[in-house]
Amino acid sequence: MAANRCNHTKLRRRLLGWYRRERRELPWRIAIGQTGRPVPYHVLVSEAMLQQTQVATVIPYFLRFIEQFPTVQTLATSPQQQVLRLWQGLGYYARARNLHAAAKMIVDQFAGHIPKRTEDLLLLPGVGRYTAGAIASIAFGKAEPVLDGNVGRVLTRLWAISQPLQAPKTQRRLWALASQLVPQHHAGDFNQALMELGATVCTPTSPDCTRCPLISLCRAHSSNRIASIPHRLPRQSPRPARHLVLAIKRYGKFLFQQRPDRGLWSAMWQLPTAETLNGQSPAQWSWQTLGLKVNHPQELGSFTHRTTHRTIQFVVHRAQARRGVITSGLWRCLDEVDDLPLAKPQQLALALVRQHEPK
């Protein structure tokens, strides 16, 4: 036990010293040379954006988001569509909807203040154990652990844990290690240091061990097993799928529809899209599903988009509406859609349509 305490103390000291020298300047952090803690709202927004997304991608989105919604109150009172429009291109849109719902809950139930207690943070939509620990430690200095992909990789290498990273038993062990390591003081810096080390030095492939402040404490390095740790279970191959996008034009305008509130790309807007045709032609699908008779649809092209579980081929057609009345949706000129949040595949489909429009 004494040896463990000594190693833990050495690990904390080395890691915090490295972090204070080498950390990246990021817009949601306190500037280098300044003291204090970051704005809790900024931590909430950044943690939502950083889920499954790299820092370099997040930075411009974060800056635009904070400029548009400078406080949790402005975010809570803004329309969801405006929030989704600013999130457009960042992907995983459930994060935006959850962040918007969390802001409303913070205003309604916590007097507009980001909760300090982990148990209160866990009540917020989209906030799990990792995000609650990150906000509590970084924004409020609470000695709460964090465990994301970067931290998990660092810890499995430090302790040479050979069991699969995703296995529940491994996750329990890693959470226990993170809990033991987080210090009572400077918990936020320590947690960010672990994440920073995983993101910039202890990377998934070709880690730069010569730059690691913990190299002498790393069991994977000393046993020459860096390349095989962490061990990951093989991922299932994404399922193939084929979607039809039908750009329907009437009086110079195209039909746009909003997706349901649940499921992939929920609440985003799109050109009418059939995820299955059940043997129908595009024209038959338009009549039976949309209530619009169209002339013979013309294929404009196709592209492939990969999601977590599917590889989707989008085939884009264009058609002219002949008759019929839509029950949902709106008609817009192609230069009047900037206010509509569109997921990446729909942006690509729209680009194809624009290419084939008369100049």
List the secondary-structure elements in sequence, H or E: HHHHHHHHHHHHEEEEHEEEEH
CATH fold call of the domain at 239-355:
Nucleoside Triphosphate Pyrophosphohydrolase
Secondary structure class reads alpha+beta
C-alpha termini separation: 76 Å
Mean pLDDT: 93
Oligomeric state of the chains in view: single chain
Low-confidence stretches: none
Number of helical elements: 14
Describe this structure as you would to a colleague:
By secondary structure, the protein is an alpha+beta fold. Among the domains are: 38-140, Endonuclease III, domain 1 (Orthogonal Bundle); 239-355, Alpha-Beta Complex (Nucleoside Triphosphate Pyrophosphohydrolase). Helix content is 43%, strand content 14%. Helix 2 (40-50) runs antiparallel to helix 8 (129-140).
Gist of the model:
With 359 residues, the chain is α+β, with helices and mostly antiparallel strands. Helices cover 43% and strands 14% of the residues.
Write the SSE topology.
Blueprint: H1 2-22, H2 40-50, H3 55-68, H4 72-76, H5 80-87, H6 94-109, H7 118-121, H8 129-140, H9 149-158, H10 168-181, H11 187-200, H12 219-222, E1 239-250, E2 253-258, E3 269-270, E4 273-274, H13 282-290, E5 292-294, E6 298-306, E7 310-324, E8 330-332, H14 344-355
Parallel strand pairs: 1-7
Antiparallel strand pairs: 1-2, 1-4, 2-3, 2-8, 5-7, 6-7
Helix pairs in contact: 1-11, 2-3, 2-8, 8-11, 9-10, 9-11
